[in-house]
Amino acid sequence: MAERREELLRAAIGQIEERGVAAVRIADVAAALGVSNALVLYHFSTKERLVAAAFTYAAEGDLAHLRKLLGRRTTALRRLRAAVRWYAPTGQAKGWRLWIEGWAVALREPALREVSRDLDRQWKAAITEVIAEGVTAGEFVCPDPAGTALRLTALLDGLAVQLTSYPGAVARSRAQEWVDDALARELGLERQALTDRER
After folding, report:
1. Element (H, E) at 87
2. What pLDDT is stored for residue 90 in this prediction?
3. Contacts (Cβ under 8 Å, ≥6 apart) of 136
4. Pairwise CA distance, residues 143 & 132, whole Å
5. Is 74 exposed, middle or buried (0-12, 13-18, 19+ CB in 10 A)?
6. Residue 170 DSSP label
7. All structural domains of the chain with their residue ranges
8. 3-state SS, residue 12
9. Residue 75: strand, helix, or coil
10. What are the residues whose beta carbons fall under 8 Å from the beta carbon of 72, sequence distance 6 or more?
């Protein structure tokens, strides 16, 4: 039962990324798995509940991966850099189309707004914590870890919109340089020192 629900959620995420929330239908999710509409409705009862559950599932997956990266036994700088590189739109994080779609829908849908806000809150809290650990360990200087976390995520989110919505507007390599520059600046490091200290 739980396995079938997960299959439906993964199919819903795929359909939302491909079609957008407004255009996706219960029938699209069912067809993607070769099951009946009734089965999807049995698990979620409405399209709105299916969409909210799909975004929650995606958010939980992203947060689990973030915690895994930040939970490694290495320096705070390495953990922070790994998290930022994964989250950056130039990295391996999948689903930027999903989250951009989610942000748009969240403007009008309270359930999705809460999922999006909670993900954002938890992401910033995790980044703030690892920055504070690095400051305490003397790895770098940062007088405002929470402010740094907000500025870094705002930069990453904005670049994701540019790279995802307007292909070719910004070269991926240039975007990665900006992310590295911002991270080094926020931590009081020279950019070269940022990579040297990771070795």
Report:
1. helix 76-87
2. 67
3. none
4. 9
5. exposed
6. S
7. 55-196
8. helix
9. coil
10. 78, 79, 82
Cα–Cα dist 24/2, whole Å? 23
DSSP conformational letter for 168:
T
Nearest to 52 by CA among 119, 1, 125: 119
For residue 88, the 8-state DSSP code is: S
- Please give the chain's pLDDT, 199 residues, in tens: 788 999 999 999 999 988 888 899 999 999 999 999 999 999 999 998 999 899 999 989 989 999 999 999 999 999 999 999 888 876 555 578 888 888 888 888 888 888 889 889 999 999 999 999 999 999 999 999 999 999 999 999 999 888 888 888 888 889 989 999 999 999 999 888 777 655 4
Return the CATH superfamily for domain 55-196: Tetracycline Repressor, domain 2 (1.10.357.10)
The span from the CA of 19 to the CA of 98, in Å, is 10
Structure tokens at 75: 């320096």
Cα separation, 13 vs 45, in Å, equals: 17
Contact between 101 and 40 (Cβ < 8 Å): no
Distance, in Å, from the CA atom of 97 to the CA atom of 100, rounded to the nearest integer, reads 5
Q: Supply the pTM of this predicted model.
A: 0.84
Contact (Cβ atoms closer than 8 angstroms) between residue 98 and residue 17: yes
Distance CA 104, CA 67 (A): 26
Q: Which two tokens stand for residue 197?
A: 């200290």
pLDDT of res. 91: 54
